[in-house]
Amino acid sequence: MKILVLNCGSSSVKFQLFNTETEKPMAKGLVERIGTSTAKLRYQSMHDGRKIEKTIEILDHTVAIRRVLSTLQDKENGAITQPSEIDAVGHRVVHGGETFSESVLITQEVYNQIDICADLAPLHNPPNLKGISACQRLLPNSPQVAVFDTAFHQTMPKRAWIYAVPAILYKRHAIRRYGFHGTSHFYVSRRAAEIIGKDIEELKIITAHLGNGCSITAIKNGKSVDTSMGMTPLEGLVMGTRCGDIDPAVITHIMAMEELRLSEINAMMNKHSGLYALSGGLSNDMRELTEEAMEGNAAAQLAIDVFVYRLKKYIGAYAAAMGGLDALVFTGGIGENAANIRGKCCENMEFLGIRLDKKKNAVTRAIEARISEEGSPVQVLTVPTAEELVIALDTQGIVKKM
Ligand code: ADP
After folding, report:
1. pLDDT digits (tens, 9 = 90+) for 291-330
2. Does 285 contact ligand 1 (Cβ within 6 A)?
3. Per 3-state DSSP, what percentage of the chain is helix, strand, and coil (rounded to 5)?
């Protein structure tokens, strides 16, 4: 099957056209700056690697997706000759609330429910819905499937997802922990079990997805039992520009002292914090921070130290939550590439059974690898994530049952 996988943000659309037989993308790309007359469309054919880049006026998601479809049919570099070749569309949807614990075919009812969940993810679900509406118009004969970032974590026990705040807030506003990056944690945990050669049902795995957004998940017998992101992707680890865990009282205190509005405090915690803030505004990019730290920049070093320290605390916590640990898996741009971060994270962790092999850990490109010592009680792995592939395969599975 040919499945178009879409990830629609407020001003961007990421796309991949998947061939599910080969499990490889045929083409992929990105539209950025939607809503402007200088939007950028980038496209790459995976057949010959040829690229197309255009700067054009794209005022909404429908126009963006129409442009994507026409580029996919480009005479020289296209991957299809007509839109009807697209068997189905798989959408990454950020928040499925408690309604969705697995991927679903999008019906009017499902659309409405995603809209209801938008209260919990006001920045993410509305653009996801724009992408769905656009595809309903442009590809009326292709079924559409929603794959939720939150779904995998719906197996968390209540003690892990409930906040210690008045119960009425959960009843009235669905305030609880949901967790994100579920597709990635699901995929890399399954791959890790395959690489180790054991049934996922028998394993206690911690998966660390470290990209611009970062989250860590405890996976016991194949199920998510705890994860670091909460009601929103702000909780947990230190991230590129997000603060992660913070004393909640700090927020009201800063708002009072600095006379900040809600939108300003939100921007502060989501866009101006994390690695970026710790490094004194130097960068939110781990590569740059690593280079700067190596040249002796103390602020860059501090950012890295705090990032790693928080990560290590979560690894300890999740080993305790599961009553043991068999495997630790690194993924995401930092997890897959940054040997220095993996190395620091595993330092002095022998007491937990984590024994990293320094030579094997030296891999600095995204490949599947076992990087622990032979005989280490905890196997440490790097597994490149493949969220789009999971979305394509889930979509195929649902469409085949229709
Ligand atoms: P997103 O969450 O936006 O998908 P990625 O998973 O691509 O982001 O991760 C981006 C992060 O990965 C950035 O902090 C970037 O610096 C880091 N990264 C990518 N490649 C490397 C590398 N070779 N060494 C260190 N960090 C890297």
Report:
1. 999 999 999 999 999 999 999 999 999 999 999 999 999 9
2. yes
3. 40, 20, 35
SS3 for 26-76 is EEEEEEECCCEEEEEEEEEECCCCCEEEEEEEECCHHHHHHHHHHHHCCCC
- Give 334 Cα–ligand 1 centroid separation in angstroms: 5
Which position among 87, 149, 226, 326 bears the catalytic label? 149
d(CA 235, CA 149): 15
Report the mean per-residue pLDDT for the chain: 97
Q: Are 352 and 378 in contact (CB under 8 A)?
A: yes
Does the active-site annotation cover 149?
A: yes
- What residue ranges of the chain are covered by domains with CATH 3.30.420.40? 2-148, 197-382
Given the candidates 3.40.50.720, 3.30.10.20, 3.30.420.40, 3.30.70.1670, the CATH classification of the domain at 197-382 is: 3.30.420.40
Structural tokens at position 275:
């690695």
Q: Is pLDDT of 364 > 80?
A: no
